[in-house]
Amino acid sequence: MNLFSFVECASQTQSLKALFDLLVSCASEEGFTEIAYGALTFLEPLRLPGCPPPLVAMKAPPDWCQRYLERKYYTVDPVVRRTPMFAGPFLWDELAKAHQLQACEQRVLQEAKEAGLKNGVSVPLFGPLGQISVISFASCFDDADPQANVRRLKVLAWHFHIAFAEIAKPSDCASNGKVSLSEREKDCLRWVAEGKSSWEIGKILNVSENTVNFHVKNAMRKLGTASRTHGLVKAIRLGLIEFTEPALTKPMVA
Question: What is the value of pTM for the model shown?
Fold first, then answer.
């Protein structure tokens, strides 16, 4: 299942298990078959059976899952502990370089690798009121390249995160109003999807960098998001801007 198919199917499911299965299927296309999703700073009302907080859903080799849960490794897992310190995706191999890990943290990473979770990468997901979640991807293949796939995995993680939020929220929390973006705000988000900086978008649209930042921040405020990526994914999910698979690889017309 490719990213476009994931977006289409995720918008139609109301089951956490079905949504998580979609995530596993799509990430597997990139060689990352082992996945965990956790809510680090708040308690989710919905989680898969057998997943204690902060875990919401987990797919890994059965022996590793059993050991991870029985020994309560989630209390010392460096990914769980260190995610709030990262602004964007990070490789597990970078953890030891960026932070002085405790012996128990190093043991979790080493045992995970021995259990078949290799080339791990985690994507921090930031929400309102300081909420922090994380999705971790790992591969059972030695030659998997998380760095080459990090952009797609990041977009996939955000799509899953927003789709999950729609499933998990109480029915009485549904929004009564519709988000409306201006054409210029949509233009800016489309170019954000291409990985363009505010300066580059300004040159393309023939406006100043400050004007681009103004429109992007307005869009984020309307969407209730704390980052450009979150805003972009939510706008796509709400149908405010069109998502197509080629958009990830070639320029769009503003």
Answer: 0.72
Q: pLDDT value at position 195? A: 81
Buried b (16+ CB within 10 A) or exposed e, 16-45: beebbbbbbebbbbbbbbbbbbbbbeeebe
Distance CA 144, CA 68 (A): 23
Q: Can you tell me whether residue 152 is helix, strand or coil?
A: helix
Name the nearest CA neighbour of 187 among 222, 235, 138: 235
- Same domain flag for 70 and 22: yes
CATH of the domain at 12: 3.30.450.80
Q: CA nearest 190: which of 148, 228, 151, 149?
A: 228
For residues 158 and 182, membership in a common domain is answered with: no
Digit-coded pLDDT (tens) for 23-47 = 999 999 889 999 999 999 887 778 8
Residue carrying the six token digits 């030891």: 96
- The average pLDDT across 109-137 equals 92
Domain presence at residue 254: no
User: Same structural domain for residues 23 and 78?
Assistant: yes
Nearest to 195 by CA among 124, 127, 252, 241: 252
